[in-house]
Specification:
By secondary structure, the chain is α/β, with parallel strands linked by helices. The chain contains 19 helices and 24 strands. The chain has an 8-stranded antiparallel β-sheet, with helices on one face. It has a 6-stranded antiparallel β-sheet with strand order 5-6-7-8-12-13. The longest helix is centred in the last third of the chain and has 23 residues. The protein is globular. The structure holds 2-deoxy-2-amino glucitol-6-phosphate. 2-deoxy-2-amino glucitol-6-phosphate binds next to helix 10. 2-deoxy-2-amino glucitol-6-phosphate (AGP) binds next to helix 10.
């Protein structure tokens, strides 16, 4: 998720580009760049680091010109560096491109272009597009862009500039947002409304497959077949701050609603198109590699640690390899039994959590192979680890982690299928079934997010309780841990999660009349046992909110309220069952008037011990 902008009009482009990008830094902030046409040629200025690094460079060497594009980056392919920053150009410098998204078939296209003599200067997928348009150009900019779009696959929002046709910008989108701001004698392009709201409130929202030719006096939109499209003007009535949250009240709820896309993107290029299995280009493991792994140690903190617990169930069941899961601050000091036959998996959204980084170094010191699962390309943990799998959730701004957690679960599921298939412990048919179910998940999450009213009501009804319990068995217990952390960290309610079978060994003493208990019952193989635990707390007059699978007609007989999730494979239910718990925590915090995005005493990335 990057931020892109474009300007064409009578004013200097650079000031608008930099100001617009500053409003899009929540979309990505590891590097930035602009390109401006000065009437003769295009000049590009870009640098790694926050936007102010680039702004200082442009201040010292102003880029003059009334046509320009800009980009603030969230790295996916190629770590943050000057060379990998956007805009990207072709061999001649005549074509310049900025991009948000992932070009899935970029490696294949890059090999073909190199064979034709193109010289690449970055590791990015995007640079392929700049060389491709150079390859397709026969004197007609628009026709060349169309030829490029016929060849690239994946998700993209793209803006093109051409030195030979400086009276226009061409932009297009597929699965990533793009808006055009309509001005008087000038027009604007941006990934999102915050970038243009200070200059105009009249916009065109581009749809998938649409392409626009933007000049200073006109905006010409057509569909993929080149047929003109009449666009309706979308008048923006948000204030600038709300615009950064995309009209949502908080980044947390925005990120909860971004999960269908984050989950789909994280599976992109890893789930075989025919659902036959899973591949990881970044791993390329062999049967021998897997045979060499006698034990897996998963190490992380907070929400990432909870993702690791789900991973343990999946990897042990599908790949039959013993898995230990540790919080990093304990792992470092318990002299763990780790050696060169251990794979240590490090999970971290930020990639900067100090305890987790130190645990990684400890595991390496003990001779372990290391694999990081992180959301930030080029982060310390990514750089320190032998191999890395990135979650493609995009920047997560709210302190309470939501979309990073579900994408970490996706990677755990993909990894377990990948290792189980390589090891031969997972039948081909079961792998295929799991892949089919994985592909369904984005729509099922979408379905869950369509009706949040009942959850909002429960949060308002019980939001002022001071103690809440979460119970579950097996994978439901792992999700209960995450649900209770979410509620604790943003609503400040004292919430605890327990393995439901453990209650009668002490905690049941705390269950009194009216205490809310969130009971997850989505695991068929322990369902009856779970119902008896629900009866245990009901017998003490607890108020029970049950989380059950759609089609389960039993559970509502035993609980006070029921929230249903779509049915999926038992190993994948955590990706769905956590959604109502995220929403419950969010609406409880809103009900209590808490600072949802910046809860007290917490930081997004904990870089202290
Ligand atoms: C989760 O909502 C919290 N922000 C916190 O527990 C977090 O998961 C933990 O600090 C680990 O962060 P990381 O994934 O960036 O390493």
């Amino acid at each position: 998720m990057c931020g892109i902008v474009g300007y064409i009009g009578p004013d200097q482009a650079a000031p608008f580009l930099l100001e617009g990008m500053s409003k899009l830094e929540y979309r990505g902030y590891d590097s930035a760049g602009i390109a401006v046409f000065d009437g003769t040629e295009i000049h590009v200025d870009k640098s790694v680091g926050r936007l102010n690094v680039l702004a200082k460079k442009v201040d010292s060497h102003p880029l003059k010109g009334q046509l320009g594009i800009g980009h603030t980056r969230w790295a996916t392919h190629g770590r943050p560096s000057d060379a990998n920053s956007h805009p990207h150009t072709d061999c001649t410098g005549k074509f310049v491109v900025v991009h948000n998204g992932i070009i899935e078939n970029y490696l294949h296209l890059k090999e073909k272009l190199i064979a034709k003599g193109h010289k690449f200067t970055s590791e990015t997928d995007t640079e392929v597009v700049a060389h491709l348009i150079e390859e397709c150009y026969q004197g007609d900019f628009e026709a060349a862009v169309k030829k490029v779009l016929e060849q690239i696959e994946g998700s993209y929002a793209l803006v093109f500039m051409c030195q030979d046709e400086p009276d226009k910008l061409i932009c297009t989108k597929q699965d990533n947002p793009l808006v055009i701001g309509l001005g008087e004698g000038e027009n604007f392009i941006a990934s999102d409304i915050p970038a243009i709201i200070s200059r105009t409130r009249k916009t065109y929202i581009l749809n998938d497959g649409e392409m626009a030719i933007v000049t200073k006096d006109s905006v010409w939109v057509m569909n993929r077949q080149g047929v003109p499209v009449t666009k309706k003007v979308f008048e923006v009535n948000w204030d600038a701050e709300a615009a950064e949250r995309g009209g949502y009240e908080h980044f947390m709820i925005k990120e909860i609603y971004e999960q269908p896309k984050a989950v789909r993107e994280t599976m992109t290029g890893r789930l075989a198109k025919d659902d036959s299995g899973v591949t990881f280009d970044e791993l390329k493991w062999t049967k021998e590699d897997i045979a060499g792994i006698k034990k897996i140690a998963v190490v992380a903190c907070g929400t990432a640690y909870h993702a690791g617990i789900v991973g343990k169930y999946l990897m042990e069941n599908l790949a039959r390899i013993p898995v230990e899961v540790d919080v990093a601050s304990e792992f470092r000091y318990r002299s763990p039994i780790i050696d060169d036959q251990t794979l240590t998996i490090i999970i971290s959204q930020s990639g900067e959590t100090l305890d987790t980084l130190a645990a990684l170094k400890e595991a390496k010191k003990l001779g372990s192979r290391t694999l990081a699962i992180t959301n930030v390309v080029g982060s310390s943990i990514a750089r320190e680890s032998d191999q890395v799998i990135y979650t493609w959730a995009g920047p997560e701004i709210a302190v309470a982690s939501t979309k990073a957690y579900t994408t970490q679960l996706i990677v755990m599921a993909l990894l377990a299928i990948y290792m189980g298939s390589l090891k031969g412990t997972l039948e081909q048919e079961k792998a295929r079934e799991l892949c089919r179910e994985l592909r369904n998940l984005p729509n099922q999450i979408h379905e869950l997010l369509e009706d949040v009213e009942p959850i909002k009501t429960f949060a308002q009804q019980y939001g002022f309780k001071e103690d809440v319990f979460f119970i579950g068995r097996s994978l439901d217990y792992a999700v209960a841990l995450e649900g209770s952390l979410k509620l604790k960290e943003i609503s400040y309610i004292h919430a605890e999660a327990y393995a439901a079978g453990e209650l009668k060994h002490g905690t049941l003493a705390l269950i009194i009349e009216g205490v809310p208990v969130i009971a997850l019952a989505t695991q068929k193989d322990v369902y009856e046992k779970m119902l008896s635990n629900i009866k245990e707390v009901k017998a003490r007059d607890a108020v029970v909110i049950g989380i059950g699978l759609k089609g389960d007609e039993q559970i509502e007989k035993y609980v006070d309220h029921t929230i249903y999730i779509p049915a999926t494979d038992k190993f994948l239910t955590p990706i769905l069952s956590v959604i109502p718990l995220q929403l419950l925590a969010y609406y409880a915090a809103v009900t209590r008037g808490c600072d949802v995005d910046k809860p007290r005493n917490l930081a997004k990335s904990v870089t202290v011990e």
